[in-house]
From TrEMBL:
UniProt entry keywords in alphabetical sequence: Metal-binding, Zinc
Organism lineage: Eukaryota, Viridiplantae, Streptophyta, Embryophyta, Tracheophyta
Residues binding Zn(2+): C27, H36, C51, C54
Pfam families: COX5B
BP term (GO), one: mitochondrial electron transport, cytochrome c to oxygen
CC terms in the record's Gene Ontology section: mitochondrial envelope
Protein name: Cytochrome c oxidase subunit Vb
Organism: Dipteronia sinensis
InterPro entries named among the record's database cross-references: Cyt_c_oxidase_su5b (IPR002124)
Annotated Gene3D superfamilies: q5lls5 like domains (2.60.260.40)
A GO molecular function held by the record: metal ion binding
Amino acid sequence: MYFFHMSYLQESPAVIGSYYDKRIVGCPGGEEEDEHDVVWFWLEKGKPHECPVCSQYFVLEVVGPGGPPDGHGDDDDHH
């Protein structure tokens, strides 16, 4: 999990590194009066996310081989 505490707009989003194609991120809002309870969300490769409380933007940068964090691809047979 990743806990983030700064102010980022759509034009310059927070870039979150991940070994996989998605990860859990927590947004506590901005500084001082802009803080809010932590909002946890899945951040996925190619899908920028806007915090629903403070409107900060986050994008995922895959810094490893990628793939799903559970080790199974979308096309794997789970019988």
